[in-house]
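If your schedule permits, I should be very grateful for your opinion on a structural question. Please examine both parts with care and let me know of anything in them that strikes you as inconsistent. The record follows directly beneath this note:
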Amino acid sequence: MSDLAAYARIGARSARMLLDAGDYRGAVHRAYYAMFDLARHALREIDPKLAVAKKHSTIIARFSKHMVRERGYPREVGRALREVFDERLVADYSDAAPTLEQANDVIAVMERFFAAIAAGEDSSKS
């Protein structure tokens, strides 16, 4: 397992812990970064250069191109990364904190994202 994959799994656990502790803003933030790290891990498996960029939007676009369009991951997986990125921006930069329902939704999206990446990695090994 790469460092990015390990960071992603740690980040996912942290997101769930923050949610349980009532820190919904922190949960959304960590969930996004867990997904971002896992997306970078998946891209690095194709070509290490794909996992390096100055902007998050570049990684998100590369993930959509290389994982969804070229490797057949479900479209929802690509959309999930973009949607949680947008949720993270609101959580980090707006005065209104996410609600419990919003944070729960983000955690659920994160978990589906992790499952989809794991399923894709498993199918590529067969």
Q: What stands out?
A: The chain has a mean pLDDT of 94. Helices lie at 3-20, 24-46, 56-69, 75-93, 100-125.
